[in-house]
Amino acid sequence: MKYIKATVEDIPAIRRIAEVVFPATYSSIISREQIDFMMEWMYSEDALRKELTGDVTYLLPVEDGAAVGYVSFGPDGIEGQYHLHKIYLLPAFQGKGYGRELFLAAENEMRRLGAEAFELNVNRHNKALDFYIRMGMEIDRSGDFDIGGGFYMNDYIMKKNLTGEI
């Protein structure tokens, strides 16, 4: 699969994918109201523009000229540490090894940018938890994070050290 680095011109594609994958991922975990709140918080045009013109990188896997998912990451304020913010694929591309490829593409790019480790947050009830463990992530801690609107993210924070790995 080919990967491109997203620009602000890719915001509509990211939003279209998010409108499919985000509710499908979380509808059995959180309320529709929280999904709507989080979609606006994370996927509004302004929020994506701020990320894409800041220090967050989005990689888009492309098949037949169309983006079929995204992964985003950026430095987290600790020297040598990055944060993997989001990783999603359209349902038709799940379960075929593309998630692994996308994860490794992000990991390799973070390593190239100087990351010695990276973290990610995952809802404690998200089935992706097993995927992250298979990818070498370890649960470091957990937390309940107030995101506003009376909503919380109930997450594990997982970590992977990149030093000494190829």
Structural overview:
By secondary structure, the protein is an alpha+beta fold. The chain is 35% helix and 35% strand. Strands 1, 2, 3, 4, 5, 6, 7 and 8 form an eight-stranded mixed β-sheet that branches. Helix 1 (11-26) packs antiparallel against helix 2 (32-43). The protein is globular. The two termini are 21 Å apart. The relative contact order is 0.15. The model has no long low-confidence stretch (mean pLDDT 95).
Query: How far apart, in Å, are the first and last alpha carbons?
Result: 21 Å
Helix content: 25-40%
Structural class: alpha+beta
User: Averaging pLDDT over every residue, what do you get?
Assistant: 95
- Shape label: globular
Helix count, per DSSP?
5
Rg over C-alpha atoms, rounded to the nearest angstrom: 15 Å
Helix-strand pattern, N to C? EHHHEEEEHEHEE
- Give the biggest beta sheet: 8 strands, mixed
What is the strand content? Answer: 25-35%
* Strand runs, count: 8
> Runs with pLDDT <50, length 5+?
none
Quaternary structure classification: single chain
